[in-house]
Amino acid sequence: MLKMKLYQKILASILFISTFVLIGIFKNLPTGKLWNNYTILYVEKETSDSLVSQCLRENGIQEFISLNNQFLPVRFSLFSPEVSYFQSNIDNPAFSYIKNRNAYFFDKSKTYRIYYIPAEYKNKLNKVVKDLSGYNKFSGLDSSLSYPFVLPLLICLIFLLFTLFSRHKILFILSAIQSILFIFCNPFYQLGIAVIINLLVLFMISNLWRRKGIFNRLSKIYLLGIMLILGIISAFACGIKIALIYLLLILSSAASILLYNEIETYFREKKSFVPIYIVSAKRTSLFANKSKVVLSASILVSSFILLFFFLSVFTNFSSSSKKISLPAISKKSQSQLPNLEDYYRWYWNVEAGPYLSLNKNEGFDKISYPRYKKDGKKIVEYQETLIFDQEYKNNLYSEIDDLKYLSLEKMLKSQGKDCSISYKSTSTYNISIFGITILLISYLILLFFSISIIIKKGLKK
User: Fold this and answer.
1) How many angstroms separate the Cα of 324 from the Cα of each of 65, 111, 316?
2) Which residues pair with residue 112 across a beta bridge?
């Protein structure tokens, strides 16, 4: 039994500490970045490439991807049969990848030219934009979303209010502090009400602490359970990674309560006299006799969160026509933006085209042709066979890194093997109808819960 309790303490401590670390490591801050590990610099199409390249290099940016510094992404020499075959068939639709690839270097309306800058140079790009404006050339960056400070600040106000009225302040702070860190590291309006519900539950526990029947009392408040489940669903609506951290946060809050109980019990045993609560949890106020203030504040802050959320949605949609549509990683591909699959097929056409037999009907996904090698003092003939299959694609995928320049294909590879590409507007949040629905339901249930308790307290008086 003692060993079991020791293991519980160790596990709870590890969970509590590791949650702090993981929330910080796996933070999800709002960003307008459209590509992983790259930032887009867009300039007016009429701006000369030499001027943009000059401004980039003067600010220490030596590597970037632009239309003018791209070459044929192949391992063959310029005078090889493969390259010669491609050049003689450049207008053939089978070789359209290279022409279609140019779409990556312009916005959807063809008004702006695009440069892809590696993330390591991100801090230097604002100076580049400033330098270009000195030449009366308009330019901008994709990462223009600002951090929504209003959300974590609103949550902090609720946290401070709950701390002020809590009957066991240390317990509340210890169990709730990670929720504050979570919302600072994941400042999404869809999570705001979920975190308020977490704080409300922890506030109730702190007020009923060490009273008989505490968990029996809380378990009978069915709306709390529903709200907690909706909070988890809200986290899943924001992404799997956020949802997993949110679930870990709930477990860590439980672990912190366990640790507090062990520490408090240790010090209570050292005292000669320990007070015992006579009034049971059933007869104790959930809100420290401050239900009207606490619940009204919860409703008010939740209403502000909802208001700011819909303002951001409205701003997003009302100004979408003014925003620039740029190539970006997406859930679905658009045909005018070729992806790595198109690159594999193009490469196969280049490599296999010169050796395609006109006499044999083998199918174009498999070819055989004679090659020659030295065997001792003799030159012998052998058959080279190429097959366009998954192994061929995997080999090409690996060879992209061997290209001797910073190619567009290297950037596509850095996004992941199965990435899809489409046009996206700058400065937009990813908002789903499902996330909006869950947020509204959570708000309405919290509103109903709060109003019903305030009315009941008023009737009792």
Assistant:
1) 19, 9, 13
2) 44
For residues 207 and 285, the answer to whether their CB atoms sit within 8 Å is yes
Each residue's pLDDT tens digit, 34-77? 898 999 999 999 999 999 999 999 999 999 999 999 999 998 88
Q: Which residues pair with 371 in a beta bridge?
A: 382
Q: Which of 170, 450, 401, 440 is nearest to 298 (CA)?
A: 450
**What's the pLDDT tens digit per position in 100-117?**
999 999 999 999 999 999
The DSSP-derived string for 152-187 is HHHHHHHHHHHHHH-SSHHHHHHHHHHHHHHHHHS-
Question: Residues with Cβ < 8 Å from 111, sequence gap 6 or more?
Answer: 44, 45, 324
Structure tokens at 315: 């701003």
Lowest mean pLDDT among 127-136, 240-249, 356-365, 432-441: 356-365
The secondary element (H helix, E strand) that includes residue 381 is strand 378-387
- Which two tokens mark 31? 């960003």
Q: How far is CA 247 from CA 106, 176, 189, 257, in A?
A: 42, 14, 18, 16
pLDDT at 322 > cutoff 80: no
Quick count: other Cβ atoms within 10 Å of Cβ 162? 27
Residue of 203, 39, 195, 215 lying closest to 117 (CA atoms):
39
Q: Which of 127, 169, 162, 144 has its CA nearest to residue 39? A: 144
Task: Report the distance separating Cα 179 and Cα 256, nearest Å.
Answer: 12
pTM for the whole thing? 0.64
Tell which residue, 294, 334, 68, 282, has the closest CA to residue 197: 294
What is the gyration radius of the CA atoms in the chain, in angstroms? 31
Angstrom CA distances, 63 to 121, 299, 394, 398, 406, stand at: 9, 51, 26, 21, 7
pLDDT at 34: 84
| CA–CA dist 126, 119 (Å, integer) | 13
* Strand extents, DSSP E, 252-342: 325-330
